[in-house]
Amino acid sequence: MLQILWDTRGYFFWLMLVSACCWLLERLAPWRKEQRALRKGIGQDFFWLVFNGHYAGVVIALVTAWLGRQAAALLGGWPWPEPESVKLLAASPVWLQFAVFLVLKDLLEYGVHNLLHRVPLLWEFHKLHHSILELDWIGNMRFHWMEIVVYRSLTYLPLAVLGVDGRVILWLAVVSTVIGHLNHSNLKLSWGPLRYLVNSPRMHVWHHDVILRGEHGKNFGIVLSLWDWLFGTAEWPAEEQPLRLGFEGMERFPEGLAARLVYPLGRRFA
């Protein structure tokens, strides 16, 4: 648990640096030139940047650790070894640990992201991320804190048994933030032939189209677009951008910060 907290503190520095660089790139070469830097909702998005970038992860980690201790005490200790003790990749070179961790984590998160669109209750949480009407780098950090719980719960076991070096976890978090910020940025990037491997703003913008593409949406990739092309969920229209972003029925979605923090668990506050 201390390792998680250390990584979170180290990550926050890189989050701020990556954010500043993306903001500067958007000022130098904006894709949608009419889009304002101080767009509607930008103030609230700075809250999500700091909250989701640091505090939410720390609180969830502490609560999870406490619940784990209570459960272990109730059972008289865990009857099985802790997943972290398996350490499948501990003896491997750091570069190999990074490569395996990146591919496995991204594949798992592609699946979780898909579930966020398919499972009605999870979609209610995911609506916050899709409520953004003008994509820019900071839109990457607008998501409900429950998504952290969902992602960590569903990916924890297969990732924990790898036993990778703590540096790998931090490096991958930084790489994921770079790609995530760029995917949501107001930058005209497609990566050329690499678009079949790495996600981009040119591809991800269609994930935010208000018109639902496919039964549950398209372009679920996080860092790698590879999974979308492999599993038939890729969308790359001839037009560069959708006419409108969001989701159907968004006019009924709460706009206030407090209401969004508790939505949909406390709809009476919305």
Give the tags.
single chain, 270 residues, mainly alpha, disordered N terminus
Task: Report, as a whole number of angstroms, the end-to-end distance.
Answer: 34 Å
Binned strand content: under 5%
Low-confidence runs of at least 5 consecutive residues:
1-6
Q: State the shape.
A: globular
* Major sheet characteristics: none
**Count of separate structural domains:** 1
Task: State the helix count.
Answer: 9
SS elements, strand count: 0
Helix content: 40-55%
Radius of gyration from CA coordinates? 19 Å
Name the average pLDDT: 91
- Structural class, by secondary structure, is mainly alpha
The helix/strand order is HHHHHHHHH
Task: Describe the structure concisely.
The chain is mainly α and 270 residues long.
SSE topology sketch:
Layout: H1 2-28, H2 42-75, H3 94-118, H4 120-130, H5 145-160, H6 166-184, H7 201-204, H8 226-231, H9 257-262
Helix pairs in contact: 1-2, 1-6, 3-4, 3-5, 3-6
